[in-house]
Write a structure and sequence with these properties.
mainly alpha, Glutathione S-transferase Yfyf (Class Pi), Chain A, domain 2, 10 helices, about 0% strand
Length: about 260
């Protein structure tokens, strides 16, 4: 007698593929971190080459060529990136989170952590390296325009870049993870909205420098907004605690499911 083995059905094959798929995939985070590092290094090299040679006089033709064209280009590119990434995350959202399997939910939590890692990496470069550099530049060179070589890189380049990842991570969590979709996470909102508000605070900063002739040191009251809003990114610690709590609960559900199976 010959025994006939049952052929796997499409549903069983899909379940096996979902189970075999690794929970943690480091490649997106590695590519994201490498991309951010490449952009930051390119910005710094560009400053090294053109800041003093073409960035001291805003009325000179070379200033318009090397700096105002950079400003226009990066604003167009970054605003299009905002629209592209955020629209993609919204329109591809999970519309049935109640049916989400624990293993896939665990996978999404690790994706969120890596999303936040790229966000924090970008904020680090913005707040520490280019932020300190901005003060040094304005203490050394008397500004004759709001669009200085350091401002064009800092406020119109690196700040919109980390906003891309910060708001993107918030949308990802709200559209793909049940616990974050149920209610708004207060530390998550603070960690994203605070650094975002540095952009409108920039307008107040430029108004003060134009009319009050403030000194270029960080302890000046005109700069307190940058400090407070920048420190708000520390609320990411609260977000990570929430994620750890959710993962702990999810691990219990996964153990129960595997025991039942």
């Amino acid at each position: 007698m010959s025994s006939v083995l049952p052929h796997p059905t499409a549903s069983s094959t899909a379940k096996a593929a979902a189970t075999d798929k690794p929970i943690v995939n480091y490649k997106p985070a590695i590519f994201g971190l490498a991309g951010v590092l490449l952009i930051m290094v390119a910005y710094r090299i560009y400053q090294q080459i053109f800041a003093f040679s073409a960035g001291l006089d805003s009325t000179a033709p070379e200033f318009d060529t090397y700096w105002m064209n950079l400003l226009k280009g990066e604003l167009v590119l970054l605003v299009c990136s905002w629209a592209g990434l955020w629209s993609y995350l919204w329109f591809t959202r999970d519309r049935n989170l109640t049916a989400l399997k624990p293993r896939e939910e665990m996978r999404r939590y690790f994706r969120l952590v890596m999303f936040l890692l790229v966000y924090a990496f970008c904020v680090y470069f913005t707040g520490s390296f280019f932020g300190e550099e901005d003060a040094s530049w304005h203490q050394t060179v008397v500004r004759d325009t709001s669009f200085t070589p350091s401002h064009i890189i800092l406020f119109y380049g690196t700040v919109p870049l980390y906003i891309l990842f910060g708001v993107g991570s918030f949308i990802y969590a709200m559209t793909r993870l049940p616990r974050f979709a149920e209610r708004i996470s207060l530390p998550f909102a603070i960690a994203v909205a605070g650094p975002f508000l540095i952009l409108p605070n920039l307008g107040y900063n430029e108004f003060g420098h134009a009319f009050w002739l403030m000194e270029e040191y960080f302890s000046a009251p005109l700069h307190w907004g940058f400090v407070v809003l920048g420190w708000s990114v520390l609320a990411l610690g609260g977000v990570l605690l929430q994620i750890a709590q959710h993962i702990y609960e999810l691990m219990g559900r996964m153990e129960k499911e595997s025991a039942a199976a």
